[in-house]
Amino acid sequence: MKKHIIIIFLLFFTLNLQAQDNLRFYIDKALINNLQLNAERKNFESAKQSKNISRSEFLPSITLSGDQTSTTSTNRTNQSGVSLADSNTDSESKKISVEQKIFSGFKGLNTFKKSELETQKADLFLKKVKQQTILDTATSYFDLIFKTKNEKFNLLNVNLFESQVDSDSARLQKGEITLTDLAQSESSLAGAKANLIKAKTELLSSKTNFERVTNEKTPDTNNLSEEVSLILPNTLQGSLEIANSKNIDLLISNLDYEIASKELKIEKARLSPSASVNYSKSENNDFSSTSDKTDQETVKATITWPLLKGGENISSIKRSLYNKQRYKLIQQDTKNKINTEIYNAWSKYQSSKSVLEATRAQLKASEIANEGITLEYNSGNTRTTLELIQSRSLLLDSRIDYARSERDFIVSQFELAKKLGSLSIKYIK
Predict the structure, then answer these.
(1) Do 69 and 75 contact (CB within 8 A), yes or no?
(2) Number of domains in the chain
(3) Quick one: 313 and 356 in the same domain?
């Protein structure tokens, strides 16, 4: 029974580790922990409250007021020297007032619509930061994998050259190689150790960046899963079509133009007449000797029409008009920029795919060549120490280039998806 429990526990623990060693796990963590993202969430909530505030323009305003007064007067004598009694005066008043705006030249309506657009804009900024967080997490994740491989390849290279130096020292004593050959091997070993130190430093930097992005401790980098796929369009034209409807920067630019249009309407509305209705009811009580009580109800309709304000309103309208025209130009410029960025991102994605295939073929050829040269060198054939060193250096470069091209190919997919505006956790498999 105990054996079965232990097996089940180990199985669960293993599955849990596997779940934590994939990209989706760390993206989920980053989407929860990222400070900038959480700040944008607060900004979105603030924008929603601004929308609620603008809605209050359509609702009545109610005011309740009241006061109570107590006055005591004391007169000791009059002008004839006759003593007078003290006098007390107490009074209170209560008033309730209700005001309802009837018409404001559509200022309230356009203010409300503007707040709706600003809420949508805040939501888009939130989505933009989410997509950037996903991209940053994916980039740091696969950079971590690449830097881990880079360290491993350089460590393997050091071990190979250490073995070669030991072997060449023995062969020198037998007279099979020269002192120059041994010096070449020792020099290559020193260079390999320097490259290993550099690789370790780069890996440490990559770990630091990963922890900054995800706010999670770096896992065992040897167990990170490289399996990931994104849903992407098959053509450049398809990419452009998606971007024109989903790209965040373009959508924000469209909203900026619409907001500027509403601001212009709001400024024009300030020159229009406005109407409101006010109802008030008051009660005044005098608790002096007369005990007077007065009740009053008032209904008032008010119409105001601003005719002249020193030219301020006209200038405000012109300013809003120029601002609207400005955002129209920005909108057009943003669309052009997005098309260029999509083209560049698509080209990078396609070229990184070609580079990946080329480096894979290069690595295979380097492995075959190095294996043959190593066998020939160890058998005392015609291969020189320099040829062996060059072969191993080429193999190391091929391994690193291939690992780098793997990272670049995957990251290019995430970059393209972000430019499209479709980078979401649900599209990552």
Answers:
(1) no
(2) 2
(3) yes
Tokens 């880079």, located at residue: 150
Q: Pick the closest to residue 347 from 194, 216, 247, 235 (CA basis).
A: 235
Judge whether 426 and 370 are in contact, CB under 8 Å: no
Return the pLDDT at 79. Answer: 58
DSSP 41-107: HHHHHHHHHHHHHHHGGGS-EEEEEEEEEEEEE---B-TTS-B---EEEEEEEEEEEEEEEEE-TTH
Q: Are residues 108 and 98 in the same domain?
A: no
Which structure tokens are listed for 16? Answer: 């849990």
Q: 175-218 pLDDT, tens per residue? A: 888 899 899 999 999 999 999 999 999 999 999 999 999 888 98
Domain hosting 68: range is: 63-73+81-102+281-305
The answer to whether position 10 is within a domain reads: no
- Asked if 89 contacts 71 with a C-beta cutoff of 8 angstroms, the reply is yes
Amino acid at 179: L
Instruction: Compute the 3-state secondary structure of the chain and give helix, strand, coil in percent, each to the nearest 5.
Output: 70, 15, 15
pTM listed for this prediction: 0.80
Together in a domain, 155 and 260: yes
147 belongs to a structural domain: yes
- 289-304 pLDDT, tens digit each: 555 667 778 877 777 7
What's the Cα-to-Cα distance from 1 to each of 4, 6, 7, 11, 12, rounded to whole Å?
Answer: 5, 9, 10, 15, 17
Each residue's pLDDT tens digit, 258-299: 999 999 988 888 877 777 778 777 777 766 655 566 777 887
Give me the sheet containing 87-103, strands edge to edge: 61-73, 87-103, 274-286, 293-304
Dihedral (CA of 36, 253, 416, 234) sign: positive
Cα gap 48→41, rounded to integer Å? 11
CATH number of the domain enclosing 262: 1.20.1600.10
